[in-house]
User: Fold this.
Amino acid sequence: MKKDWWKKSVVYQIYPKSFKDSNGDGFGDIVGIIEKLDYLKKLGVDILWITPMYVSPQNDNGYDIANYYEIDPKFGTMENFETLLKKAHEKGIKIIMDMVVNHTSTEHEWFKKALENKNSKYHNYYIWKENKGKIPNNWASKFGGSAWEYIEKLDEYYLHLFDINQADLNWENNELREEIYKMMRFWLDKGIDGFRLDVVNLLSKDSSFKDDTYEKVNDDGRKYYTDGPKIHEYLQEMNREVFSKYEDIITVGEMSSTNIENSIKYTNEERKELNMVFNFHHLKVDYLNGDKWSLMEYNFKELRDILFSWQEGMQAGQGWSALFWSNHDQPRNISRFGNTKEYFNESGKTLGTAIHLMRGTPYIYQGEEIGMENPDFDSIEMYRDIESLNNYKILLEKGLTEKQVLEILKNKSRDNARTPIQWNGEKNAGFSNKEPWIPVGKNYKNINIENALREKASIFYHYKKLIKLRKEYDVISHGSFKKIYENQEGIFAYERIYSSEELLVVCNFSIEEKEIVIEDKFLKDGKVLISTYGDIFIEKKLKLKPFESFAYLIK
Ligand code: NOJ
Assistant:
């Protein structure tokens, strides 16, 4: 295989709990994924990223791991997992596992032993501060409240950057790091094809553990552990001890609040850290003054400028990005950036085109390929997500009304992405024959996979085509990036160049008609590779309909 084979690949993210339930308990499971491999093959994706399925109390849906070596019975057995791996491989589909090594569940054996005794070696697997009469510092948990929890028996606090049930691991400890590498090799030896590494840039905490200032919204402690002092050292060690021992694997790091400079370091091949990274700056364009729990129309110009500056920056430093609109932590992209009422199909397709043809490896979140929307939950009882439930309380305490809080959750909750996949218009959207663990989106009779497969002009077939084009044209997988038309409101456009191939990608992100002037070099015989509205004639003064997009190739 070529060493950068993953540049020609498209990754599909599965949130197993909501993908397909095979045994009628209301939770999705591994056998459910096996049942749907043919569907994924039809879409044409190359790699599946499956969110955590290890033994877990599921306080944070598996991101709170209690045993790294076993599959949680809710999802099935190790045998089921091995069958999935085998069947996926037979179909030419790779599987990467989600790996959470910033923290474990407080139900993990290590943490339980750490609690028993300060002298236990496991105590030093976590981050503790003795009680000096007050909380160790003012860092905030990402899920609300303080990042420290007091344990009376030890008269100490442990650090949890996420929920109280997710204790941060002490990466300063060599023995802990060895344990983690051993465990990672266990999964790779099983034949998995790589890892998505959860919040992996938070592993190294600054030893000062200083208070933050709270002057701005992000002054909540994160500067002391984001891209921390030893992070590159740890990732190089992980690469040496684990990744470098396996051929053709893929590694993608989830980078919280990172910057371009560090992301280049994480992914520039010569540094031997990771293959690619996710960053989230473009998904904060609807945060009022940086606050997620607010309501604001997204700012198009900001969105485009952020994405393009990352494209340019990563290209200049020869880094590599994971390209995405959505995942299990984000509201549905079509509800957020598209127009679900008048231009459902068109906006779903245009969003796909805009992301898939940039420089990087595209990720599709389950359901995105049929335009699944936010479910519009109208009562707090419908929510399951720990972050949403915590912030529901916090916002009420701040004085917002129940109605205001529910409106915020409708737009911002992670549960927007976690409703069951709408397979068809039947009971429970064909996801399960029992009531699902979280309610199904109301529009499932209309928006579902069965309908999308029947309808030749659906978003599904547009995504299928985008995936296929990446395989056919090196300019998509390997071309350079250049932004264009950046002064035109509502236009998201760029050029890609690779040897003699030049690709022009233009997307209208608005509901207004737009006119652009096509550069002369493109006014020669070329080929429209993909478009929203079918045929498009490339001429000097080109009119674009609402949410119209196209990609045009010349040689
Ligand atoms: C990022 C994951 O995507 C999210 O779902 C999880 O809650 C946090 N990391 C903590 O593990």
Summary: The chain has a mean pLDDT of 97. The CA atoms of residues 367 and 421 lie 6 Å apart.
